[in-house]
Amino acid sequence: MLKPGGRYSPAAVAETTRILPYDAETIAEAVRLIESGHLVAVATETVYGLAADATNAEAVARIYEAKGRPSFNPLIVHVPDLKTAERIGEFGSGARSLAQVHWPGPLTLVVPLRGDAGIAGLVTAGLSTIAIRVPAHPAMQALLRATDRPLAAPSANASGSISPTKAEHVAKTLGGRIPLIIDAGPTERGLESTIVAATDGRLRLLRRGPIEVAGAIEAAGTSIEAPGQLASHYAPSKPLRLNAVEAQADEFLIGFGEVDGAMSLSPSGTLVEAAARLFELLHAADESAESRIAVAPVPDHGLGAAINDRLRRAAAPR
Ligand code: TXA
Ligand code: MG
User: Which fold has domain 12-218?
Assistant: First the structure.
């Protein structure tokens, strides 16, 4: 729901959720929603996904808001085919041959992100790699082709609840928080995709799933990287001070609301906008001439809790 001027109102999150059958009319409605930065839950062959335009940072921020995720995990980007995937990520020979064998299907590949991909920083949580999947389900395929843009989509359930394999499961935890669920019946696999990283000439299994990948090994001495537990989260290289109301010498101040800075997460104090800009501004601060970073206070409710979780990690001594 947009207020005049296009600002997203957190108070207006409650909305009517329609559950519509997968058909051409529903896809047309879903395209209108995705193009205007809204979320659509849609069947894939694994679990129902909560899709947003991966090139629209505020749309991606709404995923976290709707799920009530307490922190920002990097998300999987869905594309219709390998050719489109190669415009977003860099595919070495290992990644390409896995893609050729298993796509479309329940395999996600983590590859280096291309600089010119146009993917919002919140999708990758600021990382230099990206998780990409070509789903096999006709409903998700239709949405991808009709929107003609990459779609970020985690499982369509509130944070901490069970992954949804039916439209009713989605409605149970996200009803009233999203405008549309595309119902295409129960999902075939019922389990999230297998995730394999192909980032440095090796294949590493990051999440077990429906597909077994020969040659993908768990990195020695580490268990599989659980969602949200990624050691590889982007962290700025400079010291970071929290709850700053003004810049000290040598500090690049990231503002919010009434606290101005060199740049602002959201001059109007809007949490969706702040989440959308967070990683871009951390990168900008890291690349600035100042030797330290300071960040204005961000209220600790709703999406603000996820923003603060990320900022505390960025500020933790290393
Ligand atoms: O089957 C699926 O994969 C479903 C459907 C909707 O496609 N999606 C899904 O997304 O399970 P999600 O957000 O629950 O899983 C994303 C996980 C992250 O928690 C993380 O473990 C991994 O993918 N991931 C994403 N980007 C990554 C990256 N750059 N490096 C390493 N792991 C990454
Ligand atoms: Mg999930």
Answer: DHBP synthase (3.90.870)
